[in-house]
Amino acid sequence: MKKLLFFIIFFCFALKMRAQQDPQFSQNMFNILAINPAYAGSEDNIVVSAINRQQWVGFDNAPVTTIVNLSTPVHIAGTKHGLGLSVVRDELGLEKNTGIRFSYAYIKKLNKGSLHFGISVGFQNNALKGEWFIPEGDEFTSAAEDLGSATIDEGKMIFDPGLGIFYQSDNFYAGLSVSHVTEPTVSYNESVETYLARHYYATAGYTVKLDETWEVIPSVFYKTDAVVSQIDINSLIRYNKKIWGGVSYRVDDAIVGMMGVLFNNGIQIGYAYDVSTSKIAKGSHEFLLMYKFNTKLESRNQKYKSIRFL
Question: Which residues contact 81 (CB under 8 A, 6 or more apart)?
Fold first, then answer.
């Protein structure tokens, strides 16, 4: 019975800590819209992307996260705006969260670049669903006897806004953002309650052109909830804007290898593998799929024959 109580206390504590952390990704340079609404419309094309992350492969009930992003520019009365949509599914053990977020960005030209101001509004359904694990043995009573049920199936829908600012030029970008601005409370029932802590993000990257075909792209990604911080230091090398590879170091957590390719049909794929440097000696896989729709209508060449040029 004491072990069961210890497990319940540990689970609730772990749940609270987990609720203070947004989903983790390694290919953050391709996933900026997920954490900064001001990134919406930053490209001239409609961009659709999807990332699937399978973290700590080998552990039972390890985190699995899938996110789909859509971003498009909109021109109204000579002013550029951005619209974005993000849908995320995050699973960890009994916790299964699904969220949808709409982003808007006002884009203003500034010197040789553009400055973006963004806001997002979203809804997230946090759910606990599964069966309680009870060790075997005569000294343990069943979950139904202790908790009233051997399973749990509780959910809570919350409103979740965010803010951001983003600057970009031909070779440089930087952004600041905050998620869970209102720190919404998640009350599953009378005994299980947690909240989404406010998260602060900072991103920056620069493209160094070595020659006509080779580029080096260093970048940094920083996240904190004012209690725990995390920083990723990335470096990619890209050939002909179509093939890239690189390494990322997540301080005190993992070394990440990344690679990807852009096909002539506009489809872009990427892959990242995390090698853990912490006590959690398990690797993580991350897959990226992206497509850019060209919204520029190019005039067709008009050809005709004339007897003057026969």
Answer: 41, 73, 74, 75, 104, 105, 106, 107
